[in-house]
Every structure is written in structure tokens, then in C-alpha cells.
Amino acid sequence: MKKIKIIIQLFLMLVMLSGCTDYLDVKPRGYDVPEKLEHYAGLLYGKDDIFTLSVFPNMSFEFTTTENGYNFAYSVLGAEDMNAYKWESDIFRTDDVCSEWNDPCKQLYTINLVVDEVLQASDGTEDEKKAVWAEARVMRAWYTFMMAQFFGAPYNENTAASDLCVPIITTSATVDVEFPRARVQEVYNYVITEMEESLPFLEDREEHFKRIFMPTGNAMLGKVYWMMGKYEKALPYLQVAKNKIDSDGSRGLLNYNDLMEEGEISYPNVAKTNPESLYSESIYPRLWLALYPSFIESTLLHVKTEVLEKYFTPNDYRLAMVSGLNSGLSAYAQSSLDPSDYYYPNSSRIATDIGVTVADVYLMYAECLARNSQTTEAESVLTEFRENRIEPGYADIPADVNTQEELIKFVVAERIREGIGMGTTWFDMRRLWDDSLFQDMKQYYTHTDGIDTYSLTKERLTMKIPPSVIIWNPEYQNNN
């Protein structure tokens, strides 16, 4: 009798299985193996966003606490944020997660998978496959480059030959693979080669704000050369990017004059539709509506009043972003808990976008033109940019900006105005540290917690590799 029951059960199981072949053909979510071109392309813009918990904005020069150290006493800033703000030698504890290191490395696995396999996709033309292949190579070069901005010495001919930088990760393999740190020169040579070899294959059209197309790739390579101080080499790539932006129409500068509502500027929530994003590395919009007053006390540090006074005129719409003098329509709001002469951005550290924007292209292009003695062209680009940011009638370049050196300084000041309160001045601090034109900027490279004052040193332009990484890569300890 028992044998009969077993036979019946097996028969019923076979019947059930024969009737659910469709179910068995469905692959469990997360276990699909990429086969088609769309699968590989989807891996690129479906990847997680990075730098969502970064400490580097706290290392920028424009931030300060209130006189009583308000942010350190009452905000939710973690120990690693405070260490970064103080430019400590050791920022992270063993149990801290360092997004500047961890997030790019996580993305590199997926990106390398695409590089290794997309040319064998089951569909798509060779040109289509090569476009995705090239895009992935530019992405991995960009992530490697950004890691070098935190954990490698600033590029110059002296440091490039000897200083250790970050590993060059070009495989999706995770077993029996070592990733030694490369030298600064090796990293930059790799980044440039990857990008130069990939640019000819990038598609001309844009599909997604996390995808890389032709003007984006050119802008990225231009930015690499620009960060290296090789302005003449950066110029042609930035020119291609700007010309394409001008002719395209889908990407361009927001005209802040068009954002005025009842005499006050209202910045749109542009998380995924920002026409100024050529390539975004954050899901968060660069500009937020001031809708969350209770959130103010846990956001970025205050922008120094002395910095606002140095860099802004009352006719600059961007001042409204940090002045907090407007109503809830403003992108930034003033904290009711602090003195009226301190300004509090209503935007979180996670909003920092370290991709490439249209504004980046304009201002890098203008600076490269100015540094290459093409001052008339630089003034034209700069005026065009300012007409989208300044009240009509005040966008002209000031009369006292009448030499090549003054024009270069003015372009850099424009970059500071554009990125104020977002932490991106960190990259200019590194790039211009030894530039004779910008030594006076260092007077602002101080922070205070209400008791002590901390000054930035050249050694702190390079972050130490965090302990959580060294645990798994002990060989990094000897050259950290």
C-alpha cells in the first residue's frame, strides 16, 4: 500500500511539472545572465549610485560651524565627518565605510563585466556593441580617476613618478586576483589611454543621465587633463563637448531668470531631468526645494560669511541659494536656531554631484582658453554663462578684470560661485595648491569647531586609505 501511495505521488508530481513548464522557464529575479545588448546596457545605467555618504565635502574651504560649534554639538554629523572637517590624518575607524573607496570599487565589478563580455552579446551590430563597450571603459576610467582625487597625491611632474595612488582594476574576477596600488603616473596614463581609445566609438546621442555619450566622454577627458593642469591638452576636448551641447538642445544651461517667481528664485527639483547633467553620480538633485525645515539641522555646515562677501554680488541669483533670505521658494533656507549672519544650505552632503555638468564644461573651457591666451574667446564663453546666472544688466565681466591673470582668477571665482555649498571646491583646492595665482585663497583654508582652529596642509590633500580596506589588503599598510 505504501508503494502504491509513492507511485501515485510521483505521478501527480510529473503531471504538475508538465503543466508548469512556463513557470520553470522563468529565471529567478537577480539570477539572469546578461546575453543581449540591452542587458549589458542596462547594467550601466541600472547600477547603484555612488558617493552617497561621502566625507569629502566637509574638507572644502567654504564651510564653517557657528561660533559655538553648533554643528558638532547638535547635528548628526558622524565622527568621520568631523575628522574630515578638521583635516585629521586618520578620518575613518575600522568599522567605518568609506564611500570614496568602496562605492567606485563596487561599480568597477559590474563595469568590467560589461567590458569583458558585451562584444559577445547575442544581438546588436558591431558598432552598437562597441559603443556600449567604449562607454563602460570610459566609466571605469572615470571611477579610477575619481578615486585618485581622494587617495592619490595631486598630479604634477614630481609626484607622478614616485607616489603611490590607487589600484587599477580591470577585471571582474574576484578570486585569486591581486590589486596592487599603482603609481600616480601609471593611473593617469591608464585613465587617458582608456578614454582616448574609447571616444571614437561613443554614440552621438544621449539615452540616460547616467550614460556616457560623445560630448560627455569628451568633457570627461577634458576634465582629467584640466585637473592635471594640462590646459592646452584639455582645450580641444572641452571645445567638442561645448559645441555639441550648443547644437543638441537636450542639454544646456538653466537660465535662472526663467526661474523667478514673484521676485524670488525657485529652483526646480531636477533629480532625473536636470538639463545641466552630462553625467550624474548621484540620484539626488543638485538643487533642492526648501520643503523640509526639520531637515536643516542635519545638513551641510554653514557657508562662511566672509566667503559670500568675497565671491558674490547682490545681483547673483546663486546667492539666494545660500543666503536663506528668501522664503520657502528658495533652494536654501536659514536655520532659525542660529545667528542671522550664518547661512545654512538646505541640501545634504549626499547631493554632491561629482559627475560632469554643462556648467563644468563652460567654466573649464573658459579657463583653458584664458590660460592659452585666448582671452577674447574666454570672455565670450564666460559672459554667455553669466547671462544665465546673473540678473540682467549685471552679467558683464567687471572692468577691473583686464589682464590674462585676472581673467583666470575670475573664471575660478565663477566656479566657486557655481559650486558654493556643495563641497566641490575640494577639487580646486587640490588642483591650485601650487599655482602661484591662487596662493591668497589659502587664507580661507581654515575650519573651526568653536574652540580650536584647523588649517589645511599639503599632506591632507590626500586621504589615507581607510582601515576597513587595509584589513583585506594588508600590503597597503606599508605604503599608506
TrEMBL record:
Q: Where in the cell is it found?
A: Cell outer membrane
Alphabetic keyword roster: Cell outer membrane, Membrane, Signal
- Signal peptide annotation: 1-21
Q: What is this protein called?
A: RagB/SusD family nutrient uptake outer membrane protein
The answer to whether keyword Membrane applies is yes
Keyword Membrane assigned: yes
Q: What is the lineage of its organism?
A: Bacteria, Pseudomonadati, Bacteroidota, Bacteroidia, Marinilabiliales
Q: Where is the SusD-like N-terminal domain?
A: 22-221
Q: Which Gene3D superfamilies match?
A: 1.25.40.390
Similarity-based family: Belongs to the SusD family.
Task: Please state every residue range assigned to the domain named RagB/SusD.
Answer: 359-450
Q: Return the GO cellular component terms, semicolon-separated.
A: cell outer membrane
- The organism of origin for this protein: Labilibaculum euxinus
